[in-house]
Write a structure and sequence with these properties.
Layout: H1 13-16, H2 19-35, H3 39-56, H4 61-68, H5 72-85, E1 91-95, E2 98-101, H6 102-126, H7 131-140, H8 145-174, H9 184-190, H10 192-215, H11 233-254
Antiparallel strand pairs: 1-2
Helix pairs in contact: 2-6, 2-11, 3-6, 5-6, 7-8, 8-10
Length: 262
C-alpha cells in the first residue's frame, strides 16, 4: 500500500528535534555524499545514516527497504556499468575488449553507495517530520511560503501518483494485460493503457488541488501561522555537532585525503 506521506509516527530522538536541524543534517549528508568519491568513505557514510535512522529515529529496516526498493535496479546498473568506464588499475577480468579493473569495481561500488547515501539523507527528514512542520521550517528559514508549499505538495503527490499508477496497473492486469511478457518494445507499448488514464487522473487531481487552494484564500492578504518553531538546547547542541563534523569532513576531502580521486 502506497502511503500519502513518508512520515512515521514514533517517539524518538529524531522525531523530537527541530525540523530545521534535521533539514540541515540532511543537507550536510547530501553535500558530503557528493564531495566524497571513494568506496570506503561512502559505505561508512551510508552505514552511519542507516544507524541514525534505525536507532535515532526508530525507523524499521523493512520500511527503509520498501523506500529503497524502487532504486535498486539503478544501483545494480551502476555497479555493472561503471567498471566499463573506469579502465585504470589492476586488471581483475579481461575478455576481448571487456576489461574489469579493481579501480573500476571500487568506483562502481562508490557511485552506488553515493546514491544510497544521498537518498537515505532525505529519509532522515521525511520519515521523522510532518509535512506541516517542514513548511514551517522552510518559512522560518526565510523561504517564501509559495516555494515551501510547492515543495510539500510535490512530496505529498508523488506517492499519490505512484499509488494511482499501481491501481491502474492492477486493474489492467485483471483485464488480461500482461506487462511482464514480450520484448522490450512490446512491454513499452503495453504501458500506453497505463499512461493514458494516469495522465488524465493527474490533470484532474491538479484541477481539484487548484480549486481547493483557491477556496482557502491562498495568495490573498497577509498570512498568519499557528505552528511557530523554536530551538531548544538539545537542538542547538545537535546543530553544533553537525556543523563540526561537516566542516571536519569537508576539510579532509579538500585536503585530498581520499582513496580515489573525483
Amino acid at each position: 500500500m502506497i502511503k500519502y506521506s513518508m512520515y512515521l509516527s514514533h517517539e524518538s530522538f529524531l522525531h523530537s528535534l527541530d525540523p530545521r536541524v534535521k533539514f540541515i543534517m540532511s543537507l550536510c549528508i547530501f553535500i558530503l555524499g557528493i564531495m566524497f568519491s571513494d568506496a570506503l568513505s561512502l559505505i561508512t557514510m551510508f552505514i552511519i545514516v542507516f544507524l541514525i535512522l534505525k536507532i535515532g529515529g526508530k525507523i524499521p529496516i523493512k520500511t527503509m527497504y520498501v523506500y529503497l526498493k524502487p532504486i535498486l535496479p539503478l544501483i545494480i546498473i551502476m555497479l555493472l556499468m561503471w567498471p566499463f568506464f573506469k579502465r585504470s588499475g589492476d586488471v581483475l577480468f579481461e575478455y576481448w575488449k571487456i576489461k574489469f579493473t579493481d579501480e573500476g569495481v571500487l568506483m562502481g561500488i562508490a557511485m552506488s553507495f553515493r546514491i544510497l547515501t544521498m537518498i537515505s539523507a532525505t529519509f532522515l527528514l521525511l520519515t521523522t517530520t510532518q509535512q506541516k512542520d517542514i513548511i514551517s521550517a522552510l518559512i522560518q528559514m526565510k523561504l517564501p511560503y509559495e516555494y515551501g508549499l510547492t515543495l510539500v505538495i510535490a512530496l505529498r503527490y508523488v506517492p499519490t501518483l505512484a499509488g494511482m499508477a499501481q491501481t491502474i496497473m492492477d486493474a489492467q492486469r485483471s483485464r488480461g494485460l500482461e506487462l511482464d511478457k514480450g520484448s522490450l518494445f512490446e512491454r513499452i507499448r503495453k504501458y500506453v493503457p497505463i499512461l493514458a488514464p494516469l495522465i488524465v487522473g493527474a490533470i484532474r487531481m491538479a484541477q481539484e488541488l487548484a480549486i481547493a487552494i483557491d477556496s482557502r484564500g491562498f495568495g490573498h492578504g497577509k498570512r498568519t501561522y499557528i505552528n511557530v518553531l523554536s530551538m531548544g538546547l538539545r537542538d542547538l547542541v545537535v546543530l553544533a555537532i553537525t556543523f563540526l563534523i561537516f566542516v571536519s569532513l569537508l576539510y579532509v576531502r579538500i585536503a585530498g585525503i581520499s582513496i580515489l580521486p573525483l
